[in-house]
Structures are given as structure tokens and as C-alpha cells.
Design goal:
The complex is a heterotrimer.
Chain A: E1 3-14, E2 17-28, E3 32-37, H1 43-50, E4 58-63, E5 66-67, H2 72-78, E6 79-82, H3 94-104, H4 110-120, H5 136-148, E7 154-158, H6 166-181, E8 185-190, H7 193-199, E9 202-207, E10 210-216, H8 217-224, H9 230-237, H10 239-243
Parallel strand pairs in A: 3-8, 3-9, 6-7, 7-8
Antiparallel strand pairs in A: 1-2, 1-4, 4-5, 9-10
Helix pairs in contact in A: 3-4
Chain B: H1 3-16, H2 19-59, H3 68-71, H4 79-107, H5 110-114, H6 120-152, H7 160-190, H8 196-217, H9 221-224, H10 238-247, H11 252-264, H12 279-299
Helix pairs in contact in B: 1-6, 2-4, 2-6, 4-6, 4-7, 4-8, 4-11, 6-7, 6-12, 7-8, 7-11, 7-12, 8-10, 11-12
Chain C: H1 5-20, H2 22-62, H3 82-105, H4 111-117, H5 123-156, H6 163-193, H7 197-222, H8 232-236, H9 240-248, H10 251-262, H11 265-276, H12 288-294, H13 296-315, H14 320-325
Helix pairs in contact in C: 1-5, 2-3, 2-5, 3-5, 3-6, 3-7, 3-11, 5-6, 5-13, 6-7, 6-11, 6-13, 7-10, 11-13
Classes of the chains: A alpha/beta, B mainly alpha, C mainly alpha.
Chain lengths: 244, 310, 327
Amino acid sequence: MTFAISTQGLARRYGDAMALYPLTLEIEEGEVFGFLGHNGAGKTTTIRMLTTLLAPSAGTARVAGHDLATDPMAVRASIGYLPENVRLYDNFTTVENLLFFARLSRLNAPEAAVDKALTFLKIEDLANRRVGTFSKGMRQRVGLAQAILHRPKVLFLDEPTSGLDPMGVRMLRDIIGDLNAAGMTIFMNTHLLSEVAKSCSSIGVLSHGRLVFHDSMEAVTARYGDESSLEELYMSVAPDEAAA
Amino acid sequence: MRQSRTIAAQAMTGLMRERTVMLVAVMFVALVFVSAYLGWAATTTVNAIYADASAYLASVGQPVPPNPVTEGSPLAILRNLSVYVSLIGAFAAVLTGTRLIEADRTAGTLPLMAARPLERVTYARGKVEALGRATAAIILVAAIVSALTLVVMPQVRVGAADWVHFVGFFALSWAYVMVFGLVALGAAARFSAPAAGLLGATVVWLAVTFVLPAITGNVTPTAAINPVSALAAAPDTAAFQLLGDLFGPLSLSESYKFISADLLGYLPDGIQPRGLIPPLVDLLLALGISGGIALAGCLALDPNQGGPDA
Amino acid sequence: MPDFSPILTIAARDAREALRDRFLLIATLALAAAAITSLATGSLALHTDVATYMAAKDTLIALGKSASAIASPEFWPLKLLRGTVEQLEIMGAVIALVAGYRAAVSERGRQTLALILTRPLRRWQVLAAKLLGGFFLAATAAGAVTIAAAILLELTSGVGLMLSDLGRLTVGWAAAVLYLSGIYTVGFALSLWLRSASAGLVYAFALWMLMVLVAPQIGDTMDPDNQVAGGVFAALSVPKAEQDRIKAGFATYETIRNDIEISSPTKHFERFTFAVLGIKDTYTGKPLGPILTEKSGDALFLILFAFGLGAIVLLVPINPDRLTKEN
């Protein structure tokens, strides 16, 4: 079995505070992994380490088959990343922003990649408008475009639905489905249980920096009944968060 | 396109779309025109005073000394420019250096770049290249305006050697403003707080322009912004000699003004540069060190700090 | 009668924040260091002059001549404050500008402004509190510099400061407070009114450069006497009476030059303090009363600069919707 992401005792400490206790996790290729947890649980810290933005305090990890510590450039060439609050360059148009990132990703035909991403995300009408005038939802789609321009093997999404209206959430879900169908592994941080139930093939729950649950969505459904009872699962593995 | 080129090209386009940067650049160019006018007005006035004074001296039978305007180099009418380069030119470079990094930070694109196969040193090279090109552009405009002034003014005759000095002066001015731009770039990269680069580099610039000349030669701050008064000899004592030796190499504005005065031909007789290091070597060293500061800042840049996603 | 209690409440909170903020301390120390440096080097240069005079006097006496052939240097301790005043003019202005920017930023974009503005108080009261904070900051920083300079003068000059000197220092301090408060208001207003606070800071810096450096610099360098090292008249060896006659022929040029200089509040502050402290030779040793009368124009300009700008800030409506929505 090939893993898109595998971590061994990956941990991060900030001074005296432990943001992530040693995390051992394996995510298969082609999965849509939902990483659940309360605010400050350590989800963003995990994503930042897996995207090479933050050095781990301990442990190792491989992403798309490349070691995080020894071959970060190969990791970077294989991933796409959408942060929670993506803004991009306000004074630049969508195309100008995307061309910039396509070139930094060393694509041979950056213009073609940008056109393809615009078409895929159905944002051709935004192509020549400056990003500064965009709503949160529009920015999110341009942000997603920059993350998939280079057809990464693994896509990291940090709270992608945050601040989106219901239409935006639905559209994003469809896009995630299409990307996954095209073979992309997706690692998604979220605290929206309903989204996990609808989009993910496996889930992990993080509580106070510790992984307290990890299984396939199939297994969850088998154990707790239908998808809507995901809340019960969350309450059982992280009861203090659910009560808070 | 090489990655550093991509970064530089994007940064240049971004700068040209920033109102604040363009405002300061326009202000600099406007002051270059003011400087040209001042050169003309002062020269004409001194000429007229000379005509009046020589008529008087001749009438009382005293010898008429040579006209101080025609005695020196024709380039001396550009002397105010050395002050404007060290004020607005350096400030424009500081602002440019700061914005080159802060634009990425406020746009939240630092994590997006850091998660791509892009070496940090390539990022630094792209930003330094953009800074170099932006500052060269404003210095070039200043050079063109100044060259036109020299060509148009009837009393001025500029020879081939003068033009060589002219080019040397603008190359030197570019190097001088780059020092501050690079410090700002490094500070903005190293410290994520808003305006940290602007404030940090401004403190360095203030110390270099107004405090160090007081220490090395008792030059008061307002004298430091007058091209002629700034070149005062230090009081002839062991204490000032020692202070000059110690702080002279740090007093970059004095090094710059000394070489400028030499190149533009208004260096008063008998003035010695401060410190033990020759002024040109001093400036080149400063350029190298500030380049190191910019590089170190970019290498230490934390993409997780300061942006909308921090 | 307007209610001043909310103003004091906000000003007191600002003061507490300022005390906890290292910026104020570091900035004041930097300003004091720059001012003291200028004072120390000025003092060092004066000691050199005195030593030169003593050596020349000894030589003359050794040669059997009278020492009255050379003028003895006069010593006025306050004259040594030229560099200190100039550092206040330039460095003090930058610090005041940045303090104004920080006062705007501390509320702008944070939801604290929304919290304050939804309380039962008027907008002008919030702004007045901020300006009052700036006034106290200016008074503290200028006070620290003045006290440090007075102590250093007392210790190093060898001539004790007289009571009248302390009076002059107090008047100089008051002028500095007005000048720095005005500049603080410029930094505060631009950082509050403009599209973004950082753009405001840049515009404020640009304005500072024009107001504090360029306008006096243009006036200074347009002075024909500054165009030639040592002075054009000295270079031509023209006697004083003839100089005045020649200068009279350039009255229009001189008027323009003066007008450019006095468009800058910095120049008014400088002219006023240089006269009060006797730094400018024309005023050295003269009683304070007539100087104040003669320089009342400069004093009035400073008062109008500080309070006029403050009034404008209170009158210009702010856009709370925009200022509270930023991130």
C-alpha cells in the first residue's frame, strides 16, 4: 500500500507549550482526509509542518514519498496549499497572480496551466479583474486555483470553508470531489462535522495536540450509524471540547 | 523565466501599482527639478553679487578676486542633489525595500511561496534585483534631469572629464541609497511587525545622517543637510581625531558627501575625510554589509508570521 | 459644559499602554542620546576654542605683548544647546510622527474602536483623548531632554546655570512641546484618515521631510552666503556696509527665500528657541522680555500649528465603519 502522507512521532513545541504531541499517522493515496478538532487543537501546526512551512521539534514525515527533512524541495514540488485566509496580491488581476505562482512552481507552460485552472474552477470571468475587489468566496476560489495549478499529488486545505456562504461551501465540496476523482489526495483541516461527513473518506480527530481518533468514514458509519451521527463520535472522543 | 526573475518582475509591477511608493518617487524627481532650479538661481545670484562687488572693489582701487562660481567645476551647480539623494533618495529606497517584503506579507503569499520549490536565497536574489532596478530607475531620472540642466544652462561648459565625474556621482548615489534599501529589506524580512522595516531602517538612516556627523566633526543636524556646511573640518583636537577615527567609517553620509563634493568639484581645500578608511572603500564595504543584512533577513524570514493567516 | 471624564478615561488608558510600551522609552532615550551627543561634542569643540585662546594668549604674553590684541571667547552655556535644539527639530519630529501613527494604529483595525464608539460618548471626545495623550508624550519627552541637557550643562560647562537660564530653558521646553504636539497630530491624523495606517505613516514621513528638512534646507542653500565655502562676501573681502548695499539689490530674492523658510513650523521653532536661548549671536546675553516680544510671531505660529491642527482633527468626521472593519 502506498501512503500519500505518513508521519512518525511528528511533534511541535512552542517554548514550554506542546502544540502537537508525537503524531503517527498514515493516509493512503487517493483519500480525502478530514482533520477535525477544536480551535487551537494543533491542526494548523500539523499542516504547516507537512507543507514545510514549520520545522518539527521531533519526529519524521514523508509526503508524496519524499522525506520532509531531507528533501523539502521535492515535497514542495508535489504539494498544493490553501491557507485559511488567503488574500493574494490586491493590486494584481487573477491571471497575474496565478501566472506568478505557476512560474514559481517551474511549470513549462504557465499560461496553459492558468487557463486550465480557471476553466476547472469556473472563474474565467474573474480572470482580468483585480483581486482586491473580490469577496471572500471569490478569493477562496482564486486561492484554490493557485494551489492546483501544478496538479499536485497532495493538496492541503486549511479550513477551506471558513467564511463561505452555503452556496460557496457546496461549490467547494464539488470541486474537492472532482479533484479527488482526478487522483489527488486531499488533507483538509476543518471543524465542520457536516463537511467531513459529506466530503471525506477518512477522518482524524485532534484534541489538545493529541490524535484521539483515526479511521475510515466507512468504519465510522458502521460503528455510529449514519453520517449525521458524526457528532456523537466527536463527543465521545473529545468530550470536553464538545461540552465547551 | 528564472524564478528570481519572476520574483523581481512581479515585485517591480507591484511597486509601480503602489500609490505611496510612486508618491515618494515622484517627490524625489520633483526635488531633482528643485535642485536644478536652486543650482541655477544660486549661481545667477552669486554671479550678480560678484558683478556688484567687483565694480565696488574696482572703484575703491582694490584687487578683484576671481569669481567663485567660475572657479570651480561646472558640476558644482548640482551640489544640492547630494543632499536630496541622502534625504528623499534614501527614504524612497527604505520605503521600496520595506514594501518589497511587506507586500508579500500582507497579501498572505509568503506561505504560498514557501510551500513551492523555491530556495530562500532565490527569493532574496529576486527581491534585491527588484530593489536595485527600482532605485536605479529613480537615480536615472535624476541623472537625465541633471544632464539636461547642464546642457541648457548658458554659462556652463561641461567637458568630457566632467561627464565622467557626472556618471561617477550618479553611480555613487545609487550605491548609497541601496545601502538603506537593503537594510530596510533585511529588517522587514526579519521582523514581521507592521512598519518594522520602515522604522528600523529609518533609525539607521537618522543616526547616519544626523548623529554620527555630530560625533565625528561637531556638524550640527541642520549643517548636515547643507551640501557646503556639511563639509566642515572637524575641530583640531585629539578627542575629535579619535572620535573621527572610531566613528568615521560608520558615518556613511559624510563619506558620501565627501566623494560627491570631490566628483562635483566643490570640495573645499584642505578638508580631509573622516576615519581611517577611504570614503569609497567605506561605502563599498557598507554596500556589502547591507547586502548581507538583506540576505540574512530573507533567510531568517518566517512565512508563518505577520500575514492574514498568522 | 462638555463632559471631560471620558476623555480622561481614554487618555489614562493610553498613558498606561504607553508606559508598558517599550517604544516610548526607547524613543525618548534615543532622542536624549542624540541631543546629549550634540551637546557633548559642542562642548568639546568649545573647550578646543578656549584652549586655542589660552595658548595664543600665553604666546603673546611670552613675546611681551598685550593679550588684549585677541578677543577672548565669550562663554554662554545655553549657546551649547544649538545641536540639542536641532536634534529636537529633526529626531524629535520623527519620534512624534511615529507616536502619532501608533496612537492611530492602536485603535484602528482592532475591534476596540468599535467597542469605544458604541459607548455613549461623542466622537470628538475619543479624538481629544488621543491628542491629549500626544501632548503629554511630547511634554514628557521634551522634558526629559531638557532636564538631561540642563544637568549636563551644569556639570560640564564649569559655569553654573543661573535662574534666568532655567527660565529660558522652560520657555524653550514649552516651544518644543507645542512643536512636537503639532507633528504628533500630523502623524495621528494622516494615519487615521488615509486608506491604510501604513500609507498614512509614509505620507507623514514624506510631509516631515518637506516640512522639517527640505523647506529649511532650500531656504538655507538659497542664501548666497552659503553657496561659497566660508561665505561669498568673505571670499570677495567686501566690507559690511557694502554687503548691506549689495544685499538690498536682492530684496525680492531674499523675500522668496525667507517665505520658503517660514512655511515650515520647524523654522519658527528654531528661530524662537535660538533667540530665547541666545544661541543666535544677535540675541546672546539679551534679556528675555524683549526677545519674547520680538519673537511673538514665531510663538503664535507654533501655538496655531499645535492647536489649529488639533482643532481640525476634532472637526473632521471619521468613518467608524471603515476604521473598524480592517484586518
